[in-house]
Amino acid sequence: MTFRLHQYSYSETLCKLTYISATCPQSWIHLRDSCYRFSDKALAWRQAQFHCEALGSNLAVVTSQAEQQALASNVKHLTWIGLYRDPKSGSRWLWVDESLVAYTNWYTGEPNDSGGAEDCVEFLFTPHHEVKWNDKNCNRPLRYVCEISGKKEHDFVLILRYFTKLFYCYFRRFSSQSQSLLLFCILPFLM
Fold first, then answer.
1. Which of helix, strand or coil describes residue 120?
2. pTM of the model
3. CA–CA gap between residue 59 and residue 34 (Å, rounded)
4. What is the pLDDT of residues 60-117, one digit of tens each?
5. Which one is the CATH code of 29-149: 3.40.50.720, 3.60.10.10, 3.60.20.10, 3.10.100.10?
């Protein structure tokens, strides 16, 4: 991880550092707060999920219109995403990461469970050149998109000595939306 120091002086105990670059594995694309890998081979949905898991990820979980649009601009083929029909309740959909489905982008008339065997979801190209969701038979080989978090959150602990004083310092994210970190220093005792 790379940080840029914005402010610091010997008399200050608070330092502001800014995260400079996102961390994505090689051959992954950074979009918004995640890293995505678009496959170049077609697999059935379950095998696609296994392949993503082997890479330390899951099939993509699309949680907003902004994420949908970012992904859609990179989709070139029919593509599996990480949404599937709950086997215990045919009317409920689940994400592979077990998060709740709060955003959807179904194509008109979908999901329709055509033939009673459409339990997985693909990105589908519409006649109007949009990318929408369609339920599909999970055994059909399609390209797929894997997703991992592009944010790495770490706590760093430093022990600093300034003249005769010993400081214990740690970093914390400034806010959930911010890419800034703050360095907090504690003077536990005087030497």
1. strand
2. 0.70
3. 12
4. 999 999 999 999 999 999 999 999 999 888 789 999 998 889 999 999 999 999 999 9
5. 3.10.100.10
